[in-house]
Description:
The complex is a heterotrimer of chains A (69), B (232) and C (233). Chain A is mostly helical.
Amino acid sequence: MPEAVDPMASVGYLIAAGAATVVGIGGYALLLWRWIREARVRRARLQAPAAPGPAPVGPQPRAEASRLS
Amino acid sequence: MLTSAGARRALVWIAAIASAVSAAMIVFYVPNDRVQGVVQRIFYFHLALAWVAYLAFFLVLVASVVYLVSRDLRWDAFARASAELGVLFTTLVLIVGSLWGKPIWNTWWTWDPRLTTTLVLWFIYVAYLMLRAYTPDVERGARFGAILGIVGFVDVPIVHFSVQWWRSLHPDPVFARSDPQLPTPMIVTLLVTIAAMTLVFCALLTYRTMLERMRDDNRALEDDEVGERVYA
Amino acid sequence: MTGALTADLGWRAYARQLYALMAKDVIVERRTKDAITAMLVFSLLVLVTFNFALDLRAEIMPAVGPGVLWTAVVLGSTLGLGRTFAVERDQGTLDGLLMAPVDRSALYFAKLLANMLLMAAVLLVSVPVYAALFNVAVRPLPLLAIVVLGIVGFAAVGTLFSAMAAHTRAREVMLPILLFPVTVPILIGVVQATGLALGNPAARDMPWLSLLLGFDAMYVSLGAVTFEHALEE
C-alpha cells in the first residue's frame, strides 16, 4: 500500500523520469544520425574510383578480379 | 523495411508528432491519481517503454528464426538493430522504474516479479550484444546471435514465473491506482503513449537496420578492396 | 532432418554413436583431469569463501544454506563446462567431429551427458563437504530429483553456450555472462526446492520440480535443434 505522497516533492521524479526518457531516446537518435553520416562517407570513399598508382606493367590482373556482391 | 527515404522521413515526423501529443496528454490532459498524485504519470511512459522493449526482443526472435532458415544476412542486420534498441529501451525501463519507485515506495529498487524479470532480460540481451561484439567472424556471429535470440526470448516467461513464485510470500509493492479500473482519460493516454513509443521505436529501427546494412556493405567493399590490392 | 537420420540409423546405432562420442570426452577427461579438478577445487573454495564473506551461523543456515551450496556448485561447474570445447577448439578436433558420420543431435547429447557427469561429480563432492563444513543435516534422497533436474537444465544450456563461447575473443569468460541470466529459473528452482527438502521455513511451496522439468524439456530440445548451428565452421 503506497504511502501518502507529497505531490510537490514528487514532481521532481516525474521530470527526471521524463528527462531520462527524452535524453535516452533523443541522444541515441543523434548518435544514430552521426553513425549513418559516417557510414555514408565511408561508402562514398570506398565506391570512388581508386587513386592512380604507379603505372602498371604488362597485363592488368585487376580487371579480372571478381567482385563479391 | 521502408526503403524509400521519403517514407522513412515521414515515419520520423509521425513519430515526433505522436510523441508530442502523448507528452501533452500526460502533462495536461490526464487527471492526477488520487493515491500517488502527480508522480503516477510516469506509469504511462514506463509501461510504453516496457512494451516496446519486449516488442524489440520479440522481433529479434523472429529475425533470428528467419535468419537461421534463410541465411540471409539482412535479417541478421535487422536482429542486431532490434537487439540494440531493445537494450536501450530496457535500460530506460529500469531507470524510469527506479525513479518511480523512490517517491512512492521510498526505495530505488524492489525485487518484484516485473522489475526482476526486466533486469534479467537486460542481462540476457547485453550478453547478446557482447556475444556479437566478441565474435570476429560475421557469419558465425549471425548464427550465434540467432541462437541466443531464440533461447533468450523463450526464457522470458519462464523467468517471470520462477521469480513470481519465488516472491510469492513477499508483499511486493503494487503499482496501485486509486481506482481498480482505469478511468477513460487514463486508458486513452496510455494507448496514445504506447502508440507513440511504438512509432518512435519503428523509426529508430528502420534507420538502425539501414545503418547495419550499410556497414555490412562497406565491410564487403573493404574486403574487395583489400583483395584487389593483394592480388593486383 | 535429424529425425530422418535417426530413423535411418535405428536406435541401436544411434545409441552406439552417442556412447562413442561420450566415451571420447570421458576418456580425454580421465587422462588430463583438467576440468574435473579445477571444478571440484573451485566449488570447495567458494564454499569456504562464503564462510568468510558471510556470517554463516547455525540459525541462518536453513534459510541461506541451499543458496550457498548451489552458488558454489554453479560457479564451479561453469568453470568446467567450457573446458570440453576449449580443448577441442585448441586441438582443432571440432572439424573432425562435424565431418564424422554421426547424427547432429548425437553430438549435442554426447556433450550434454559428458557435462552432466562432470556436474554430478562436483555435486557428489560438494554436498557432503557442505554438510560437514556448515554442520547441516542433508538427506540425500529428497535431493536426488532436484539435483538431477538442476544438472540437466544447467548442462543443457551450458553445453550449447560453451560451444559458442569457445569461438569468441573472450573465450570461456563469455560463458558465465551468457549462462547466468538464462539459467535464473533453474537457480531459483533448485535453491527453493532444496530449501523445501531441507526444512527451510522461508522456502516457497510451489511446484518447483515441474518448473525445472519444463525448463529442462524446453532447453534440451532447443539445444538439440540449434547445436549444429553453433558448431558449423
